[in-house]
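Hi L.,

As promised, ETS domain-containing protein:
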Amino acid sequence: MGDTKTTKLETTKGEMTEMQTEQKSPQAATKRPRYKNTVHLWEFLLELLADERYSSMIAWSRKDYGEFKLKNQEEVARRWGIVKHRAGMNYEKLSRAIRYYYHQGIIQKVR
């Protein structure tokens, strides 16, 4: 077995979490590390929806149905880019990820 490395990271909620990576061979060093507590886009959106400070960017339109609306799409995308350490994140890229969720049945588009 290889060495395990633990790194502390700050989550979008300001909490500390740990990232563990294990390297089994020199070739494994070129692969992407596996994160123990990766934040998914749907979790990030729910965090924003739960916090009134972000109501100018994203808000529930019909909370009882789980329906929400992005009010400031570019700002939501910018913040998602910060969380994922992707400086080039924009709404076009964020919307592609959301459309992927449509195909996975995680999010449904409503009109």
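The CA atoms of residues 21 and 28 lie 10 Å apart.

Thanks again for sending the construct details.

K.
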